[in-house]
Amino acid sequence: MKRIFLPLLLIPFGVFSQAFDQNNEPTIGALSSLHLCDSNANVLANTNGNNATWDFSQIAGIFGVTKDVQMLDASLDPNFASFAGATKLYDIGGNFQTFFSSDANGRVSQGFVFNEVSLGAVVASWSTDQENLMTYPFNFGNNITDIFSGTVTTTATGTIPATGSSMAAVDGTGTLLLPGGNTYSNVSRYHLKDSAVATVFGTNVAFVREVFEYYDFTVSNLPIFITMSVDVNSPLIVNSSTIILSKDQPTTFVGINENSTDSFVLYPNPSNGLIQFSKDLNGASYRVLDAAGRTIQSGTANSSLDVTKLQSGVYFLSVNNQVIEFHIQ
After folding, report:
1. CATH code given to domain 266-328
2. d(CA 220, CA 18)
3. Where does residue 239 rank: exposed (0-12), middle (13-18), buried (19+ CB within 10 A)?
4. Local mean pLDDT, 10-residue blocks, the chain (329 residues)
5. Residue 295's beta-bridge partner residues?
């Protein structure tokens, strides 16, 4: 954990947001159910600075689904043996679990777990050099870069060495606009981007995560809005997924149109890899989403769809303003 901490030398007039510190760190048992949103929405990555306005008031929802964001006891997790020293597990919607520990000086991560379409469960353990997430107090204008290392384990690859680098910052303060006309005017945005590289089947694979978390400590010590993308890049594997979660429920929903004249059915359901449509979709654009609302496959559809690369589970097909649930055996 070779970190560089850049202190805030000048606090601009008008910044009243509360710093991240041990007092407002979520305790074990903290839980918030956030609404799943359209993963194709603009995440406003470049909207930052003091007195920023992040407008997500018109963001659409996905099927009205909620996802739990929670802080758990790391020692009770089945993967705990891979994360020696971790005391807390930060779980974002069951999609991404970060193991970390903290003290009065800040937070350090022992690694993370997430599910990847091609590789299955990815267990990244920073057992050699941990990753620094923030140094307390962490306020607007502070940022940290870090280098970390350990191993990555998947069913497909076994356990292989990995190294990584990260950047964490409070890159903005200001006003967050959420659906339903809800305004939060004392918000701080935590931005984390980290990447890890491991050699898989003789070629480098990069795991890249970018998270924007919006906090209003007068409302909750957990974020009230989250955008997170996870990319896996290599000559052999290229996959990308995004999850967006909101405290306030969207008022419109993606892919729901009960009066659509383009209605169709798919079969067999469950399927073992090839789906047939009851009508030719004539090259219509489609998306396949997993149970968390992440787009994991897309393209143009005609009379059938090849989903042989998908693992067993529940998925959703969105095409022609219609959303259909299907199962892979």
Report:
1. 2.60.40.10
2. 12
3. middle
4. 45 58 97 93 96 96 87 97 97 94 97 82 96 97 97 88 98 97 97 93 89 97 96 80 94 58 68 79 82 80 84 81 77
5. 289
What are the extents of the domains in the chain?
Answer: 4-246, 266-328
**Amino acid (1-letter code) at residue 127:** S
Integer Cα distance of 143 and 136 in angstroms: 11
Spatial separation of the C-alpha atoms in residues 40 and 244, rounded to whole Å = 9
HEC secondary structure over 261-320? CCCCCEECCCECCEEEECCCCCCEEEEEEECCCCEEEEEEECCEEECCCCCCEEEEEEEC
Strands 88-92 and 266-267: unpaired
Spatial separation of the C-alpha atoms in residues 274 and 278, rounded to whole Å = 13
Query: Which class for 157: exposed (0-12), middle (13-18), buried (19 or more C-beta within 10 A)?
Result: middle
Q: How far apart are CA 249 and CA 235, in angstroms?
A: 39
The count of C-alpha atoms lying within 13 angstroms of the C-alpha of 109, restricted to the half-sphere facing its C-beta, is 26
Cα distance between residue 208 and residue 18, in whole Å: 29
Give the model's pLDDT for residue 264. Answer: 67
In the chain, how many H helices and how many E strands? 0, 22
141 DSSP assignment: T
CB 102 within 8 A of CB 90: no
Could you tell me if 119 and 237 are in contact, meaning their C-beta atoms sit under 8 angstroms apart? yes
